[in-house]
Write a structure and sequence with these properties.
Strands 2, 4, 5, 6, 9, 10 and 11 form a 7-stranded mixed beta sheet that branches. The chain has a 4-stranded antiparallel beta sheet with strand order 1-3-8-7, with no helix packed on it. By secondary structure, the protein is mainly beta. It has no helices and 11 strands.
Length: 117
């Protein structure tokens, strides 16, 4: 099994910054994609950003230029640096790890990000 533990959420004013971290442990696989999703109240979960083992990235249009995803393969950790935060970024943020071979998704427990106006 794979365990994902997120940290770094909290309350911040609009225009501020937060950095989320997600540490993976357990039975890890060499070929995976790690990412961050978010879910706001009454809305579906959506992709925020994802990154392959080799460092290729993909972002939602709404966060391009403001958020940066990165990973430390040696530490099995993925980060999400969030700058210029807006109230509409308020959501529970979930870490995701996709095993590319089996297509199995693993999820963290989620961390709340609240941006006040």
């Amino acid at each position: 099994q794979v365990q994902l533990v997120e940290s770094g959420g909290g309350l911040v004013q609009a225009g501020g910054s937060l950095r989320l971290s997600c540490a993976a442990s357990g039975r890890l696989f060499s070929i995976d994609v790690m990412g961050w999703y978010r879910q706001a109240p009454g809305k579906q979960r959506e992709l925020v950003a994802r990154i392959t083992k080799s460092g290729n990235t993909d972002y939602a249009d709404s966060v391009k230029g403001r958020f940066t995803i990165s990973r430390d393969n040696a530490k099995n950790t993925v980060y999400l640096q969030m700058n210029s935060l807006k109230p509409e970024d308020t959501a529970v943020y979930y870490c995701n790890k996709l095993n590319v071979i089996t297509s199995i998704n693993y999820w963290g427990q989620g961390t709340q990000v609240t941006v006040s106006s």
